[in-house]
Amino acid sequence: MGALLDGIPESIAIGVSMIAGGAVSMVTVAAVFLSNVPEGLSSSAGMKNAGRSKQYVFAVWTGIAVISAFASLIGYAVFRHFTSGVIAGTISVAAGAILSMLVDTMIPEAFDSTHDFAGLITVIGFLIAFLLTKLNGG
Predict the structure, then answer these.
(1) What pLDDT digit, counting tens, does each position of 71-126 carry?
(2) C-alpha radius of gyration, the chain, whole number
(3) 14 phi-psi bin (left φ>0, alpha ψ -120 to 50, beta other)
(4) In sequence order, what are the residues at sequence separation of 6 or more whose Cβ sits closer than 8 angstroms to the Cβ of residue 44?
(5) Distance CA 13, CA 89 (A)
């Protein structure tokens, strides 16, 4: 459920990033990818440990991918008619969703696994995100 609540605003942000230039922002895609891969692996492992079948796990992620693709389309088609304030608010919600998932799921897991390095790894992740924005001209 968290991945879905996280994925919808992220996907809308990807669609919104296409409004300005007609192409997907590579920084947005990189940020979504970097946050979703470990999140997906962690969630999949949790479902597997809870006794869910591989088919169930695959169906859940397929459903989330389809819903996220639709949200991206909405971000592009619908949000182009909104003001820059609404778009900024939507991107802020997407950023908040990423942070929420990090704090709720990934940071506690990372702290359990790599107690001594969890903070350092988090800082490196934010530094990479910052550098990606600067390389993209942000």
Answers:
(1) 888 888 888 888 888 888 888 887 787 777 777 777 787 788 788 888 888 888 78
(2) 16
(3) alpha
(4) 57, 61
(5) 10
Give mean pLDDT, residues 43-68.
Answer: 89
Query: What size, in residues, is the chain?
Result: 138
Q: Judge whether 35 and 129 are in contact, CB under 8 Å.
A: no
Name the one residue in this structure whose structure tokens are 């908040």.
96
Global model pTM greater than 0.85? no
Three-state SS string over the chain comes to CHHHHHHHHHHHHHHHHHHHHCCCCHHHHHHHHHHHHHHHHHHHHHHHHCCCCHHHHHHHHHHHHHHHHHHHHHHHHCHHHCCHHHHHHHHHHHHHHHHHHHHHHHHHHHHHHCCCCHHHHHHHHHHHHHHHHHHCCC
Tokens matching residue 117: 């390095």
C-alpha–C-alpha distance, residues 9 and 16, integer Å: 10
